[in-house]
Amino acid sequence: MPRDFYVRARLSMVGGDQRSVRLFAQQLRELAQLRLRKILMLLAVNPSIADSRDFLDKLTIEEEELVKSITPLIKEFLNTVVGLQ
Asked: What is the pTM of this model?
């Protein structure tokens, strides 16, 4: 997905009629939720994937920032629960 996908998607809603903007926003939210679920599953299984440039290059700017902010929390949680990193 292009790094600026969400920015361009939001910009494409400008000037649209209310019905089409609402429908597009709903579809964009569903896509974001699906991608979020996939990202969280990958991080839960292997938090060190966040250190992979190959993985990060497949994310949008917003998703990469999210990954960078939550990965330390996931690692800390797993370390606390399991006692290993």
From this structure: 0.87
